[in-house]
Predict the 3D structure of the following.
Amino acid sequence: MTANLLFVCGSLNQTTMMHKIAQSLPEFHNFFSPFYAEGLLAKIVPTGVLDRTILAGSHYAATENYLNNNSLPVDYGGRGSHYDLAVTGTDLIVQSNLCKNRLILVQEGITEPENLAYHLVKNLGFPRFLANTAATGLSDAYDRFFVASQGYKELFIRKGVRPEKLVVTGIPNFDNAGDAFNNDFPFKNYVLVATSSIRETGKLDNRIAFLHKVKRLAGGKRVLFKLHPNEKMRRAEREIRSILPEALIFRDGNTNHMIANCCFLITQVSSVVFTGIALGKEVYSDYDLSLLNDLAPIQNGGTSSSRIAEECKNILQIPLHELRQPQVVVGRRSWASNWLPSGFD
């Protein structure tokens, strides 16, 4: 009998990664779902409070549009079938129906620094989503975790992730940066600024100070801004115009192509910094650059999705009872289990 696979999407980056992996598994029945919530969070979604997350708003709409435009079979919330294996791009929330069978986690991109929220999650049991991607991997709810590089494998082990679950495969969308040089983007030799939706995720971002830094680093060169899709666009554009009135601002477009044509790249906390590093660009980031070089995704010519697919096939051959070991809680047991459904703590 052909296995059923569920690919749980999220941001457009996560969604395209899931699609690439599924394309390497054509012999199975593959279904897709936008990211979804259960229990209390599901009730909050219609209020608009979560519109800046992958559960709603622009992220959710972009994923739905992508799935529809590519005529992919959609099963919202994985409710339409029994699934032999699920693949997801985040374990900050692990839906209860995903815990019932084989579960694969794929690293989505850069992880945030271990700030106060991370330590509250790990040491006091606060819900993982409060720490955003800094808490990636801490659920231990998955059977395998496919990561970008040996550097990231070592980072996740230091955080407490079980080494036997980690596999370095590279990650789709960040494993073939050189292909970006083949583009028709009309501008060249500019300073590219890739912003981040720091404020939209509830963190502090002195955007005006950042813009003055951009102006200083640019030194009179033409500046192009690529806004993060989750930003409040009008506010961001207004702030840019106040400091750099001649800058070109793009809400949409292929960021990798823009990076390929730039003379150097300025980022905040964006995964696209890895593309800049892979392309040999001069890069400025809120992160320590020596650390970023250690963590940079391996470049394997775009074969990460097929490597992950082969690992998925191997896992499907392993009886579930042999895969599942007693769950390791990386940090204290979450008090969230008292008010969130199974899999959310």
About this structure: The mean pLDDT is 92.
